[in-house]
Design goal:
Strand content: 15-25%
Number of domains: 3
CATH topology of the largest domain: Rossmann fold
Shape: globular
Helix content: 40-55%
CATH architecture of the largest domain: 3-Layer(aba) Sandwich
Order of helices and strands: HHHHHEHEEHEHEHHEHEHEHEEHEHHEEH
Structural class: alpha/beta
Number of helices: 17
Number of strands: 13
Distance between the termini: 60 Å
């Protein structure tokens, strides 16, 4: 009987698109078929109706090349977690969908961490001291909340997030930008943390592939996809953090960006303008919202973006953009607030001078029904 693991390893090769494999698995499921039956069919398995069958057969042809890789994975106690496994991260599938979810995860350590509540802490490889202090405090506070800290093992913010999580006796996931078999020195370095169940090392790439810039960029979507909440210490105007945050925003993920100090020249403010949630940070007060909320909020799920707060200001009483701006103490222009309200399905304009807004009728009805 042919091992399914041979298929999953072959499916992780750089020239294979995740969407190709995932659509095939969905097809099998929808037709009450199983991968093992296809692999052991000796050509008798009827899949003529499947449009990309040739692509799947190409994967099947290369499976025997993976036999030696399986032995090496077993030698280092590395598990193969396919997208059909109960241990595969449900949040990753929810965030990345069929198109981008990696078909297989190679994992060493406590694989149950993949389905625990987790946060990602991300930022520049050349982050400032204040960004590294922020990373340390953010890791500490989330360890207190029993969150798993996800990071990418790059220099700067990634490494600080990992070190801080372990320092505060928390749990962490390292997402590698390379094949997992090329990280053997890391296995030795973190042996005690792996054995204690506090650390999981994963890769979604072919096990022997070496680090490269494209893999490092591809790895970022996994870091973001695993997280319930994402914390950005510092971003440049290009690179992995910059592109990762924008992808996370498109996936409607919860992303908090540290409000930079006036003298900083990073891209944090620009990411906030693009829709990330802003909050200020001080060493003596963690997670202080920068939008002048009246009380300190310790539960991060309560943080809201400026757009959320603007829409929540709407009521049955008409309000102008200026009154909303003053109420929230926003540094946005009234034109920007007006534009947001005009384009929202939750707001209705009243033609007065100045223009005012109220909740739409459907929103008003919800208020009465509460």
């Amino acid at each position: 009987m042919i091992s399914e693991n041979l298929f999953w390893i072959a499916a992780s090769k750089p020239n294979i698109k995740a969407e190709t494999v995932n659509k095939f698995i969905v097809y099998l499921h929808n037709n009450h078929l199983e991968l093992k039956d296809f692999l052991n069919s000796n050509g008798s398995f009827q899949l003529n109706a499947y449009p990309d069958l040739n692509k799947i057969l190409d994967i099947q042809k290369t499976m025997n090349e993976s036999a030696a890789v399986i032995d090496e994975l077993k030698k280092h106690c590395i598990e193969i977690i396919s997208i059909t496994s109960e241990f595969y991260s449900k949040r990753l599938k929810d965030n990345l969908k069929v198109k981008k979810s990696p078909p297989v995860i190679f994992a060493k350590g406590n694989k149950s961490l993949l389905n625990e509540d987790s946060v990602s802490i991300v930022g520049s490889r050349t982050a400032s001291d204040i960004s590294l202090m922020f990373t340390d405090d953010t890791a500490r506070e989330n360890v207190k909340r029993n969150k798993v800290i996800v990071s990418g093992y790059a220099k700067g913010v990634d490494r600080q997030a990992l070190d801080s999580a372990l320092k505060y006796n928390g749990k962490s996931i390292i997402v590698l930008p390379q094949g997992i078999l090329t990280f053997k020195s890391g296995f030795r370095l973190y042996e005690s943390e792996i054995n204690s169940g506090r650390l999981l090392i994963i890769s979604t790439f072919f096990p022997n592939v070496k680090w490269s810039i494209p893999l490092a960029m591809a790895r970022n979507s996994i870091i973001y996809g695993l997280a319930k909440e994402i914390f950005v210490a510092e971003s440049n105007f290009s690179g992995g953090t910059w592109s990762g945050v924008q992808e996370g925003l498109r996936n409607n993920q919860i992303i908090f960006v540290r409000k930079p100090l006036p003298e900083e020249t990073n891209a944090n403010n620009k990411l906030i303008e693009l829709g990330a949630r802003s909050y200020s940070w001080h060493p003596d007060k963690i997670y202080e919202v920068s939008l002048s909320l009246d009380e300190h909020v310790s539960d991060l799920s309560a943080f809201k973006s400026p757009v959320d707060l603007i829409l929540e200001c709407l009521s049955l009483t008409p309000q102008s953009a200026r009154s909303i701006k003053d109420s929230l103490k926003l540094n946005w222009s009234t034109n920007k607030i007006t534009s947001i309200l005009k384009n929202s399905n939750k707001a209705e304009a009243i033609k007065t001078k100045p223009l005012k807004f109220v909740k739409r009728e459907s929103q008003q009805m919800e208020m009465f029904l509460k």
